[in-house]
Amino acid sequence: MKITDITKIIDPTLLLKATMQSFSSNAIEDILAKLPITPEPDYRFNSKNPVETWKEGKLHWYPVGADRGNAGRIKLAGSPENPIGERIINAMEALIELACQKAMILTPNAPLPKSPRDAVRHYFGLPSLDQLPLDAKLMKGNRPTKEVTEIAERIKIALRQEGKGKDYTITVEDDGIGQTASRMHETLLSLGCSDKPDKPYLIGMFGQGGSSAFAASVYSWFLSRRSAELPDHKGGGVGWTFVRQIMPVGRRDVYWAYLAAGPDGQVPRLPESAADAVGFNRGTKIGHIGYKFATSNQAYGLYSSLNHLLFNPILPYYIVTRKDKESGKDKPDLMTGNAYRLTKLKREKKDLEKKFDNVSV
Ligand SMILES: Nc1ncnc2c1ncn2[C@@H]1O[C@H](COP(=O)(O)OP(=O)(O)OP(=O)(O)O)[C@@H](O)[C@H]1O
Ligand SMILES: [Mg+2]
């Protein structure tokens, strides 16, 4: 009933590589053309009996959150930066959760951090980032600024523009806890099923922030691999799927769906050896293709808008929105929020007041 072994259909290493390099709708459609997928009008999802129209040996477009009426909740985001902010926060939480789970293995009865900032102080030794420019103490023998760049390496956001229609693509990659293939449908592709509300050291709680990015994208791709440091990674493989909007023929109620391998909603599982071959060790990688920015200023202004939106983020991260003029290589910017930037200016005793000397009133 389930395509448990997609490797018989497509080389998993090639599939992983091609997915990680998919930055345009054309690239996604090239991959889709090679896969056995039931055309969407032939699979009518029935939550009471998802097997009803399921075709053996095929992948199916399965509603996100197993909810055929998911459009209302997915379309919640206002401006296009908001879903990117949600994804970045999820990535920070994935890093904290990994650190917390590892600590719990070593000391099962240790008290849990009381807040996200408490967790960051405890597991990463970082103060509130806005205090960092004033904090001269060494961290793990490093200058705080060096330590910050090392932590920031673990969350990378990139903006690209590729393909015939010059699609914008946003990728969000973290080196956090990751999810097993068998749980991706209950986590990354669920709706309203957060696993965070009982954890005071995390931020999320509604189970829908990340999904708001689907509404801003033509396609999305997902790869996730549970950290090998946790016992539940065993046999977890690497989860892989694509997400897109479905417009049912003759109906007005669109919905968002992902490629599922079985009628229980599980995504295809690729072997961990394929991930090893492409250097994907753990965490989650997400691509949002055909991202709907209103203008190129809005797209390339992400450095400013995200520093404003995540004013004093709990963890630093990197963003790539530009290339180095000489080498043509990506030029990543360290993101620490405007609160950090303001403290730094204050420490350097730079005048923050704007002067309008040449303006005659
Ligand atoms: N980067 C990630 N790594 C691992 N798991 C993730 C990641 N992002 C999301 N998840 C999983 O997917 C679920 C849904 O994420 P989503 O952002 O939609 O909701 P949430 O973070 O739980 O709550 P909120 O709606 O308040 O953001 C999370 O509860 C978590 O289990
Ligand atoms: Mg979230």
Descriptive notes:
With 361 residues, the chain is an alpha+beta fold. The chain has one domain (6-347). It is 27% helix and 18% strand. The protein has 11 helices and 10 strands. The protein has helices spanning 12-20, 25-33, 71-74, 81-106, 116-124, 144-152, 212-215, 272-277, 296-300, 302-309, 338-347, and strands at 60-63, 155-162, 167-174, 219-225, 238-246, 255-260, 269-270, 283-289, 317-323, 330-335. Strand 5 (238-246) and strand 6 (255-260) form a beta hairpin. It is globular, with a radius of gyration of 22 Å. The relative contact order is 0.20. The mean pLDDT is 91.
Shape from CA axes? Answer: globular
The total count of strands amounts to 10
Provide mean pLDDT, rounded: 91
Low-confidence runs (pLDDT<50, min 5 residues)?
A: none
- Secondary-structure-based class equals alpha+beta
Helix content: 25-40%
The domain count comes to: 1
Main beta sheet strand tally, sense and closure: 10 strands, mixed
Ligand inventory reads: adenosine-5'-triphosphate, magnesium ion
The N- to C-terminal Cα distance equals 77 Å
Give the topology string: H per helix, E per strand: HHEHHHHEEHEEEEHEHHEEH
Strand content: 15-25%
Kindly provide the radius of gyration, computed on alpha-carbon positions and rounded to a whole number of angstroms: 22 Å
Q: What is the helix tally?
A: 11
